[in-house]
Write a structure and sequence with these properties.
- The complex is a heterodimer of chains A (277) and B (129).
- Chain A has 277 residues and is mainly α.
- Helices cover 73% and strands 4% of the residues of chain A.
- Chain A has one domain.
- The chains are: A mainly alpha (277), B mainly alpha (129).
- At the A-B interface, helix 1, helix 3, helix 4, strand 1 and helix 9 of A face helix 1, helix 3 and helix 4 of B.
Chain lengths: 277, 129
């Protein structure tokens, strides 16, 4: 694929990114995780440029979807802002070590994250509400409520320090791989801090943009952001995700999730192969 | 519908609604600028062969703002796309900046401090080195 001209190359990357954004948004997995393997495995793009393009597309979808999520009334801005301290610090660390770590190691880490992301699709969602009050969560005013049908259900956040540390790790992954790390963020909030799934995912969407912005400064400096490559990726993922959000109300996502997970696992295998070369 | 809202949560919600809409407008502006750059790029360089498989970080240097500015005023396609990308990166940063004022308005000083920390990390990312 190395001898395509700019026009064809841009068009193909746009189509690929559009599909990634569409599937990512329909399945709730986010398109970002599939963009880097698509660019490196299918198009032979260097992993640094691929991570740069992916990172920018992550910011686009996070900011673009923000108003829709606010309207739903699930996101918790205090949880988001507090945990962004962890994710942004992690992101700066992650983005700073990209240049130090070998491309092979990055590919192998990426393969594991892909497998993990595919598995989380089938993870049991945390819907039950914990009634115990955690003193740290109370002090930080993290507890809140969210609409379930016609009622407001309140929830109590647990294990704040553990969740915070997990978020630093999510930030490192985001900076290192140029992804949103939505799966790791939801793991921290949903599984560790016992925040209801809908609150976790929507709050995570807010955090993804800010986290990626923290990596972006460093990516710009190291020259990972290649405008001509970012352009079709960003526009493709954004329009795909936008269409996905419109379609979401009348599609069943069960079989789509299985298809997307299989694609992710194939990509994971290819990334692992690249990493072990 | 949603009942029994605490006052601060109502305020949180309306602030977030405004911010959500601002973010969307930011993305639309950034996307439009990138599209203008993209059209120019494909018209002028569409038949050239790109090489992304080898990492050459020095081709386009964002950190040189004077070069970027010159590129924009001379309608260099890549510079215009870079401007759009910079607008896009600015959207979440602006959200954090506005949140500082929003929490200050609510007199929630603990969260003013948290938000300022996030802002400082972002500033460090862009201006370190």
């Amino acid at each position: 694929m190395h001898d395509l001209n700019n026009l064809l190359f841009t068009l193909l990357i746009y189509i690929g990114s559009f599909s990634a954004g569409l599937l990512g948004s329909l399945t709730g997995l986010g398109g970002g995780v599939i963009v880097v393997p698509m660019l490196t495995v299918l198009f032979g793009v260097d992993i640094h440029f691929a991570a740069g393009a992916s990172l920018i597309s992550v910011i686009a979808t996070s900011s673009g979807a923000a108003s829709a999520y606010v309207k739903e009334g699930y996101s918790n801005i205090r949880i988001g802002m507090f945990l962004e301290i962890a994710t942004t610090i992690g992101a700066v660390i992650g983005a700073s070590i990209v240049g130090i770590i070998s491309v092979n190691a990055v590919s192998i880490i990426f393969a594991f994250i892909l497998v993990y992301s595919a598995l989380t699709t089938f993870l049991k969602k945390n819907e039950h509400v914990v009634h115990e009050l955690d003193p740290i969560a109370q002090k930080l005013k993290l507890n809140g409520n969210y609409p379930v049908g016609d009622e407001l259900v309140s929830y109590n956040v647990q294990k704040v320090p553990q969740g915070f540390i997990m978020m630093i790790f999510a930030g490192v992954l985001s900076g290192l791989l140029g992804i949103g790390s939505g799966a790791a963020k939801v793991l921290a909030m949903d599984q560790i801090m016992k925040i209801p799934f809908k609150v976790s995912t929507t709050t995570s969407n807010f955090m993804i943009g800010v986290t990626a912005a923290a990596s972006a400064g460093i990516y710009l400096k190291y020259g990972y952001i290649h405008a001509a490559l970012v352009m079709p990726v960003m526009l493709g993922v954004l329009t795909g995700a936008f269409l996905g959000a419109k379609l979401l109300t009348f599609t069943s996502s069960k079989s789509l999730k299985i298809i997307f997970s299989v694609i992710i696992l194939v990509m994971a295998y290819e990334m692992l192969k690249n990493g072990l070369k | 519908m949603i009942k029994r809202h605490a006052n601060t949560e109502n305020l949180d919600r309306s602030i977030e609604t405004i911010l959500g809409n601002l973010l969307r407008i930011g993305v639309i502006i950034a996307g439009s600028v990138v599209i203008i750059g993209a059209v120019l790029f494909l018209v002028r360089h569409g038949s050239e062969i790109p090489s992304y498989h080898i990492f050459k970080p020095d081709i386009f240097n964002f950190s040189d703002f004077r070069d970027l500015f010159n590129g924009i005023i001379t309608f260099r396609s890549v510079s215009i796309m870079e401007l759009g990308i910079l607008f896009l990166i600015a959207t979440p940063v602006l959200r954090v900046l506005f949140s500082v004022f929003a929490f200050a308005y609510e007199k929630d000083y603990l969260y003013v401090v948290f938000t300022v920390i996030v802002l400082l990390v972002l500033i460090f990312s862009f201006f370190s080195l």
